[in-house]
Amino acid sequence: MDTPEFVEFAKATIDYVADYTDSLRSRNVLPDVEPGYLSKLLPKEAPKKSERWQEVLKDVEQYIMPGITHWNSPHFHAYFPTANSYPAIVAEILSCAIGCIGFSWIASPACTELEVITCNWLGKLLGLPNEFLNCSSGTGGGVIQGSASECTFLCLLAAKEHTTRRMKRLHPEADENHIKSKLVAYTSNQSNSSVEKAGILGSMPMRLLPVDDKCSLRGETLKKAIQEDLEKGFIPCYVVATLGTTGTCAFDNIDEIGPICEEYNIWLHVDAAYAGAAFVCPEFRYLMSGVQYADSFNVNAHKWLLTNFDASVMWVKNSRRLIEAFSVNRIYLAHDKEGLVPDYRNWQIPLGRRFRSLKLWFVMRIYGVQGLQEHIRHTIKLAQLFEKYVRSDNRFEIVTEVVMGLVCFRIIGDNSLTKELLDRLQTRKQVYLVVGTYQHKLVARFVVCSRLCREEDIAFSWNEISSQTTEILQEKLH
Ligand code: PLP
């Protein structure tokens, strides 16, 4: 493909993207296909001869779109948002065109330096303590990872290395593998699946601790678990606290958890993958009270900050601990500016890395702080509107306090009613919600996800939910 043809192809694709975005409201949010649908439609082998781009683009609409779940539809209320915005999409194109692999400063100085700058911008914007920023004279700094899962796992590995070294200094005679076999991690039983997975991948038991009636992990519970483990000869190493759990958007009490981690020399990682975005608004920062105790903090710009996947921003107070755990050197990786700027390969698992900060930079500049704040406040206002609809209807109950963009509600009565509602909604494909639990009750999780969502969309989704509930309850009567 030569340059003129690329321009034609890319322009047609951008037109397609714009039309797709504008048509999202009128498409069913869930696809109507069965497993294996695509292999019945596409050839078994790759084409021998070049095909025209026009044919390929046509097949996107014909074959691919029918199998898409439209995460950016204003009627998508499942999981948490996946960010999407035009500035981020354009930045992705540019990042692909540059195509650098910025594992060290010299591998593309702008790639590293823009990442340092955007992580500082965002860290300041969220109100993180200065120790997390690269601009301070200390060892802190931010880095963009692919996912919150990676952040939790990376910090577990770094905590493991750090604690092992510390124990080795205290007990030089101790066997390193024996120390590692005694390490234990803690989180709440409400934390994201990726936290438990980090324990599995890092070969460290991850204790899932009980929570209070607000689904929040409390200091007392953590302390009790730590003391039990110390008595059994285990070594507490790592705690993951969540600000904004996936199930009910609960906030662990890091004001209580933090001092305990400090007392027992435990690495505290704060997973604020979703709700952390709200801290761009000063009025929500009370929810991260205690963040000064954290060793690491993570927010997914790719969830609620308009920056397309993948952009999971992680800050650490002491980047040396990452470098100690992850740096492996080779002669071909060396350069003469080492130590002056981060070589991000030592802050992550892979060697290669994408130029992700471009999209964060575009988003922060083109939306501005005000635009980002408006986006958060608008989402929360829409969630409150939905809450109002639910509260106005005595067939339903709101199950947990609505703090961010998530409303947990259920049909009053047996769990089977809420299950039936969610099943019907899924079959009808107009709106998409997923199930959660609260104290053995099934709940429907309604999340305001799409940046395109407006009041009329909330009314649309509510009408669908309400009318299906009427049908369910009428059928039960007969
Ligand atoms: N942590 C929380 C609180 C989440 O809600 C999620 C996903 O929804 C994750 C972690 C995992 O995020 P990622 O897909 O970036 O690994």
Give a structural overview.
- Helix content is 45%, strand content 12%.
- It is α/β, with parallel strands linked by helices and 478 residues long.
- The strands form 2 sheets. A 7-stranded mixed sheet has the order 1-7-6-5-4-2-3, sandwiched between helices. Strands 8-9-11-10 form a 4-stranded antiparallel sheet.
- β2, α8 (193-201) and β3 form a beta-alpha-beta unit.
- α5 packs parallel to α13 (357-391) and α6 crosses α8.
- The longest helix has 35 residues, at 357-391.
- The N and C termini lie far apart (65 Å).
- The mean pLDDT is 97.
- The structure holds pyridoxal-5'-phosphate (PLP).
- Residues 79-80, 147-149, 192, 194, 242, 244-246, 271, 273-274, 300, 312 line the site of pyridoxal-5'-phosphate (PLP).
Write the layout of secondary structure elements.
Elements: H1 3-23, H2 37-41, H3 53-64, H4 86-98, H5 109-126, E1 141-145, H6 148-170, H7 176-182, E2 183-188, H8 193-201, E3 206-209, H9 219-231, E4 235-242, H10 254-263, E5 267-271, E6 296-300, H11 301-304, E7 312-316, H12 319-326, H13 357-391, E8 396-398, E9 406-411, H14 415-428, E10 434-438, E11 441-447, H15 455-477
Parallel strand pairs: 2-3, 2-4, 4-5, 5-6
Antiparallel strand pairs: 1-7, 6-7, 8-9, 9-11, 10-11
Helix pairs in contact: 4-13, 5-13, 6-8, 6-12, 9-10, 13-15, 14-15
The structure holds pyridoxal-5'-phosphate.
